[in-house]
Amino acid sequence: MVNDRYLLNQTSLGWLLLIALVVLGAGLGLRDPWPADEPRFALIAKEMVESGQWLFPMRGGEIYPDKPPMFMWGIAIGYVLTGSIKVAFLLPSLLSGLLTITLVWDLGRRLWSPSVGFLAGLLLLFTVQFTLQAKTAQIDALVTCFITLGVYGFIRFLLCDGGWRWYWLGWFAAGLGIITKGVGLLALLILIPAIWTHWEKIRTASRADWLKGLAGPLFMLLAIGLWLVPMLGAVAQSGDPILQAYRDNILLRQTVTRYASAWHHVKPFWYYLSSVIPPFWLPLSLLLPWLVVEWHKGILARDKRIILLLGYLVLVIVFFSASPGKRGVYVTPGTPALALLAAPFIGALLTRVWPARLLGGLGWLLGILCVGGAGALAFSTKLASKVGDLGPAPWLPVLAMGAALLLINALLRRAPLSAILCSLAVGWLIYSSWICVKLNDMRTPQGVMTLAAEQVPAGDELLLAGFKEQHLLFSQQPLWHYSYQMPDGEQAREAAAWVAGAPKRWVLGSADIMTVCFDPARMENLGNRHRTDWLLADSAALKPECQGLAARVEPFHYAPGPHAGQ
Q1: How far apart are CA 155 and CA 194, in angstroms?
Q2: What is the per-residue pLDDT across 41-82, written as a single tens digit (0 to 9) for each?
Q3: Within the chain, how many helices (H) and strands (E) appear?
Q4: How many CB atoms lie within 10 A of CB 313?
Q5: SS3 state of residue 523
């Protein structure tokens, strides 16, 4: 009879990383960067390589002031090594995921046992939010890796007799996290519950120990200085007001102001507890009622492992909940601690009725939903019209996924943990290598930009109005564009003035901008992407009220490199 005993007794890091590489690496090179964030980072990295300007991230010739360049450097290095942005844009997240899993495995085996380490790494791999971020070109996988490295260093120091070098590593990793995305300082949160667990050692510490402890922030500053010092020096030397604005924005607005007084993604305090953790921390979120009981027992027994990891996890959630601006991906750094806190208790929980039923039921539910979704795609005319760009039989991969999940859960019905982990593995493999390939054309503007290259005569100029980064990434000709931050109404006016300012000029823009100053009947529709039509026009399509306008703003110029669209 198949059960979960084999899985619970595994210890090999090699097997764990092989499984992780297959799941997280599936689909690498098969899809292009998808909005909202992936095309932005891929474009910046591509421009770094083509322009040779690596210190200040640029987006189509315009400086990108929202994030430090660490993540984009990773993509750029991958682009240099592979020559393909299609491969390179996912490499930093993939490698970050593998390293984070390795750190969790090592902590689990040191704090509990080799089998707990293996299971913790496996649970992390299949926590939905972690898997999703490790397969997506967003900064969160990389910053989670640095935060986890910091936590790893602190725990090695606090619980594993690792010596001061691990304590300093924790601070240094926090600094690397800060120059990746300001929240890298989250690694330091584990030092707060450490005040309780290690109070006696703190109280009796020698002067030498205090000096070594106070040296920690210096290692964090050293890591931050790897990027900050060259950036500040370049800004000071240039005297450029644009670079000065970049410095002020990246150091203040995108850190302190963004956290304390967010201007978008505003959610209530309980958003993570109600809308993120239940679906995105599956399958472990199903077991939280029983895990909380076990953690409470650990706290009463003064188990330092539980107190430190749980204290850190709770503080991460509180930290992000306190900010008015919230996105689900923000709490990804909590998933490694969750996996470590769950792994020691999974074996015992599987002997109980409801935890086993919930894990097994989740696999069946996913299979049923996939089969039902495939049926809806096959027989609903309304849905079929919406996915018409997916080619013939768009329901087939969804049906295949559903059938595979149902078969897995039938064969492993006596092994609920193995069943749900296998279900998630197969689901991710089919999604990454089949469904994503079908979705790729619909998720990118490649068709629109190809038509633009065909319809705009060689030697004519083309301006983008209301562009997204993916339009520049897939451009096949030199382009002009206005600032990404320019309001739509102003872009409409400036586009009209620009196209009338010289012969052989064309404007490609989103319908809501183009219809302000151009006659819809005299424009060419190049396709619908990202919930809007993209229209092409020359000066002959200008409405009378928009003729004779004077240009006020000079657009940015972008010339794609030799690997455009690859």
Answers
A1: 9
A2: 999 999 999 989 999 999 888 898 888 999 999 999 999 999
A3: 30, 8
A4: 23
A5: coil
